[in-house]
Amino acid sequence: MSFKIYTKTGDKGETGLFGGKRLPKNHIRIESYGTVDELNSFIGLIRDQISDLNKRSFLKDIQDRLFAIGSSLASDPSKNMITPDIKLSDIELLESNMDQMDADLPPLKNFILPGGNIIVSHCHIARCVCRRAERNVVALHYIEPVDELILQYLNRLSDYFFVLGRKIAQDTEAEEVVWNPRS
Q: Is residue 6 part of a domain?
C-alpha cells in the first residue's frame, strides 16, 4: 500500500494537530513545534560533521528527545493523548555532559563570537534556533500550559550547544573568536 506525502489539507493555511484539531499555520503552537523541527535539522547537520562517536550518539539522543517534544507540542491539548515525554534525567544528562566538556575548557573570560570553523558555527546556529524554540514555547505556555520540563530542557539545550561549540573549537584547534568591544 502506498500513500502520497501531500494531502492538500493545508492549502488554505491550516494544519492539523494529533487528535484532529485544526489551527492556522501561524499559530504559536505550530511555530513552536516547527522551530523544534528546524533545530532538529541543524543538529543532524552538526552530527554529520562530527567524527567522535560518543558526541554523535549523544546528539542522536538529543534528536530523539526533540521528537518527543515535537510530539507533545503537536498534540491537541484538549485531548488526553499519550505522547513521549521528557524526564528530569534528560535534563540532568545534558548538565552532566556540559560539566564533562567544561572541565577541559579554559575559563570563559570574554564573550565569544560565533565562528572558528564550520562545526562551531553550526553549534552557534543550533544554540540560536534553540533559544527561538524556547521563546516560542514560553509564549505558548502563556496561552496553554506546556510541560515545564520541556521549557527546562530547551533552556539547558541552548547552553549545551554553546559548550559543545567551545569544546569542538578546542578539539579542532580552531580559534575561539573573542568579542572585543570598541571603547
A: no
Residue 154 in grid coordinates: 530547551
**What global pTM score does this model have?**
0.90
CA 40/CA 21 separation, integer angstroms: 24
CA dist 99 and 102 (Å) reads 5
- Domain enclosing residue 143, as ranges: 22-74+111-183
Residue 30 belongs to some domain of the structure? yes
32: CATH: 1.20.1200.10
What are 20-50's pLDDT values in tens digits?
677 656 688 889 999 999 999 999 999 999 9
Per-residue CA distances from 8 to 13, 15, 23, 24 (Å):
10, 10, 15, 14
Our count of domains for the chain comes to 1
Residue 164: closest CA among 18, 55, 24, 73: 55
